[in-house]
Amino acid sequence: MSNVPEGDTVSATSDVRRTPRGLETRSRIVDSAAKLFYVRGVNATTLDDVRLASGASKSQLYNHFEDKRALIHAVIDVQSKFVLAREEQRLRGVKTLAGLRRWRDALVHANSLQDGSYGCALGAMSIELSDNDEKSRQALNASFDAWQRMLVETLTRLRVLGVLSEDADPQRLGTGLLAALQGGYVLAQNAHSSEPMAVALDMALDHIAFFARN
User: Fold this and answer.
1) Model pLDDT for residues 37-94, shown as the tens digit of each residue
2) What pairs with residue 212 in β-bridges?
3) Are the C-beta atoms of residues 137 and 151 closer than 8 Å to each other?
4) Integer Cα distance of 118 and 42 in angstroms
5) If DSSP codes are grouped into helix, strand and coil, which group holds residue 190?
6) What angle, rounded to 10 degrees, do the helices at 134-160 and 121-129 form?
7) For the residues of 34-83, what is the DSSP string, one character each?
8) Greatest pairwise CA separation for the chain in angstroms
9) What is the pLDDT of residues 93-148, one digit of tens each?
10) pTM for the whole thing?
11) Which residues, 6 or more positions from 166, have their beta carbon under 8 angstroms from its beta carbon?
């Protein structure tokens, strides 16, 4: 069971009308919840907070989401799609180690704009939810698996192109790179500085560069 249920819940209308206006309202609620979860955290955000931020009425909120857990699952879906689309765009054209470092630079720069605060949207939710909400854990795990596959595919491409030697193991290197990134987010958040994230990624990339063909 999750430790994040909302105390005041109302049964959702089973036949929610999927009109353009209804879909816009749902999107506004999810977007507002995503922003609040990212800045305040899931557990610190109430449904009333989301309702006020989105401008939705209580009946509109519960027409779309029967409880806080349902809203959390919707936010995970939206945030996962956003993060994975961003990463796919950044990684698909990487064909050199310099390109991989540009990927690193973009992540560190974005993190530096908020002084390391808030961390990764998916990572932050994973920390709060994975031990208490199995559906959330599975959804987040699927997202991290997809993210890792993108890194593995990128490193495999570098090996096929001859940038990395045949000794390079894209699976292990991809796992290490994603772990460095997520650990970097956590340390940057605690330090309120992107420097720990930069160091963690640099060390992971230096290890990958060890397998570069001379």
Assistant:
1) 999 999 999 999 999 999 999 999 999 999 999 999 999 999 999 999 999 999 999 9
2) 164
3) no
4) 12
5) helix
6) 140
7) HHHHHHH-STT--HHHHHHHHT--HHHHHHH-SSHHHHHHHHHHHHHHHH
8) 64
9) 999 999 999 999 999 999 999 999 999 999 999 999 999 999 999 999 999 999 99
10) 0.88
11) 159
The CA distance from 100 to 149, in Å, is 15
Q: With contact defined as beta carbons under 8 Å apart, do 164 and 213 qualify?
A: yes
Cβ contact 30:50 at 8 Å:
no
Q: How far does the chain reach from its first CA to its final CA, in angstroms?
A: 53
Q: Look up residue 43 and give its amino acid.
A: N
Domains and CATH numbers, the chain: 19-65 (1.10.10.60), 76-210 (1.10.357.10)
Q: Contact, 157 vs 79, CB < 8 A? A: no
* 139-163 per-residue burial string, b: 16 or more CB within 10 A, e: under 16: bbeebbeebbebbbbbbbbbbeeeb
